[in-house]
């Protein structure tokens, strides 16, 4: 991919400036010094014109975020279902090998959602979309710290599954496992024996949000794999287009069609997913019909312009606003006026979101802890802090790369660095700068949660317990025997406190989408960065 080769070049350039090669005579040295001055002057002149546009210099790496990224990516290996390949987690093994077989499908891959062993398609697809976005913007940063391969691998482990879960145009299997059966057990995925039913949406029982989120995941992933694996990429795109048409033609929430999903990942609506999916399809195809979809056709209806929201597995509006702002930042010159005006509204709303995040903006949200963490819900509070910080670092980099110097919030002006500093504040809180003086990223630092709510992590590999008697491991006083490396737990209370107990599900359960959002945030912070102007 273009961005990888840029990073590789940066690395090579750094190597060739090895001082040992610098000749022995003083003349040689003088010539080199003068040469260097000329080159520097020339470079500065070029930079004056290019300003913040991307160059091939190797940026200094921030070790803290690089180390954290290396851990965060491992959580996807912790969560993998299926026949494992190059497994990095010693306490994980093959599992879920028969998943999907009752419908003659291979749904063995994919990832377990959180501390249990259900594959919930709605959040899993969101995990993939966020991973794709992270790779597209910050793949060169990941590559610079040798993590890009792991990110590709994790993404593909999910997209392989999603492709198999879409066996015909208007059928999508969105769940493997029954939460009722699964939650009656406390067992390792490697030893589970209960039935693993699969559940679908179809034309009679549609599920717009889950089909659209899956379309977003596959469309964004098609961009990720475009250069390295064009056949796979075009297969992803075909599924994405079909799923979007299915989602849009048969409009209904899966929570309404199939009420039993309301207990887990109940959806509050599908308009946001339709816009999000169409935005990704537009980026993946440059087909104007997807642009018209999010602007003149549905902008008014679904976009909630000028109202700020929190980016999450359930609500993609803020992410859509940032993603569509990208077009204004980098490529709206030839855009027809109508689309342009609507896109400006998305960008305006994205600015309002950013203004809400900046802690000293006149419109700063009050929804944070005394320690400065964005805090929206008791359940899994870190998801919103990390998601907000990810969007902020993206927006900051869009501003930098497009030479947009100022963000105005009710008359006050802010710089890209202000957004970046907000993002850093959230990342640093997660990594240990907080009242508890602990890291919420498992494996990072000297103090992190030891009683993570996670079946596989809490049960010794050689335990002879099964479904029911396994609960003794949930209630055991001992710390987890297996480290759930890279898990980002739910996080602290509003008063910045955290209770490290295994049955404190709201706080101590990790999830794959938490880790995906963290991967995006950390990748953006590894070095002073700018994004590429175009994905294509
Ligand atoms: C359509 O989906 C519903 C809900 O998952 C399921 O009960 C039904 O059997 C499906 N229809 C067909 C024809 O498979
Ligand atoms: C699930 O969401 C729907 C709206 O999509 C709502 O009507 C319903 O009350 C919610 N159910 C639960 C259990 O929260
Ligand atoms: C902080 O909040 C939690 C949850 O609401 C509560 O259990 C705990 O006692 C509070 N701690 C302090 C120090 O106020």
TrEMBL record:
Residues 65-522 form the Glycoside hydrolase family domain. The chain crosses the membrane at residues 24-47. Its EC number is 3.2.1.4. One of its GO terms (molecular function) is cellulase activity. Keywords: Carbohydrate metabolism, Cellulose degradation, Glycosidase, Hydrolase, Membrane, Polysaccharide degradation, Transmembrane, Transmembrane helix. Belongs to the glycosyl hydrolase 9 (cellulase E) family. This is Endoglucanase. It comes from Gossypium hirsutum. The gene is LOC107911316.
């Amino acid at each position: 991919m273009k961005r990888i080769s840029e990073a590789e070049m940066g690395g090579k350039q750094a190597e060739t400036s090895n001082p040992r090669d610098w000749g022995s005579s003083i003349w040689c040295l003088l010539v080199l010094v003068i040469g260097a001055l000329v080159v520097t002057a020339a470079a500065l002149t070029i930079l004056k014109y290019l300003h913040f546009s991307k160059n091939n210099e190797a940026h200094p790496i921030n070790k803290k975020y690089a180390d954290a990224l290396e851990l965060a990516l491992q959580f996807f290996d912790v969560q993998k279902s299926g026949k494992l390949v190059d497994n990095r987690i010693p306490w994980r093994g093959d599992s879920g090998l028969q998943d999907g077989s009752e419908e003659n499908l291979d749904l063995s891959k994919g990832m377990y959602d959180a501390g249990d062993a259900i594959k919930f398609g709605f959040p899993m697809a969101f995990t993939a979309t966020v991973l794709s976005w992270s790779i597209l913007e910050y793949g060169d940063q990941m590559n610079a710290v040798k993590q890009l391969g792991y990110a590709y691998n994790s993404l593909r482990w999910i997209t392989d599954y999603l492709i198999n879960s879409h066996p015909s145009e208007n059928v999508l299997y969105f769940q493997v496992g029954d939460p009722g059966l699964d939650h009656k057990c406390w067992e390792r995925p490697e030893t589970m024996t209960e039935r693993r039913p699969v559940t679908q949406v179809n034309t009679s029982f549609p599920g717009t949000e889950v089909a659209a989120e899956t379309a977003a995941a596959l469309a964004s992933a098609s961009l990720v794999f475009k250069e390295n694996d064009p056949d796979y990429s075009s297969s992803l795109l075909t599924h994405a287009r079909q799923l979007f048409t299915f989602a849009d033609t048969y409009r209904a929430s899966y929570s309404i069609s199939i009420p039993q999903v309301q207990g887990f990942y109940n959806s509050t609506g599908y308009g946001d997913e339709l816009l999000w999916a169409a935005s990704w399809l537009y980026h993946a195809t440059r087909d104007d019909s997807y642009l018209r979809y999010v602007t003149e056709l549905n902008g008014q209806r679904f976009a909630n312009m000028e109202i700020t929201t929190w980016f999450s597995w359930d609500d993609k509006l803020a992410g859509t606003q940032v993603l569509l702002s990208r077009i204004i930042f980098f490529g709206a010159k030839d855009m027809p006026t109508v689309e342009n005006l609507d896109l400006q509204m998305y960008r305006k709303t994205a600015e309002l979101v950013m203004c809400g995040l900046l802690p000293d903006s006149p419109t700063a949200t009050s929804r944070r802890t005394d320690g400065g963490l964005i805090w929206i819900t008791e359940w899994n509070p870190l998801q919103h802090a990390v998601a907000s910080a990810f969007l902020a670092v993206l927006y900051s980099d869009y501003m930098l790369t497009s030479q947009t110097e100022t963000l105005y919030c009710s008359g006050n002006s802010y710089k890209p660095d202000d957004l970046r500093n907000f993002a850093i504040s959230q990342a640093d809180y997660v990594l240990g700068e907080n009242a508890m003086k602990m890291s919420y990223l498992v494996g990072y630092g000297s103090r992190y949660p030891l009683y993570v709510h996670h079946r596989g992590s809490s049960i010794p590999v050689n335990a002879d317990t099964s479904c029911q008697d396994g609960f003794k491991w949930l209630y055991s006083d001992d710390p987890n025997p297996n480290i759930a490396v890279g898990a980002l737990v739910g996080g602290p209370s509003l008063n910045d406190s955290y209770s490290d107990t295994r049955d404190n599900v709201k706080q101590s359960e990790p999830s794959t989408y938490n880790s995906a959002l963290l991967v995006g945030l950390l990748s953006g912070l590894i070095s002073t960065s700018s994004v590429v102007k175009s994905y294509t």
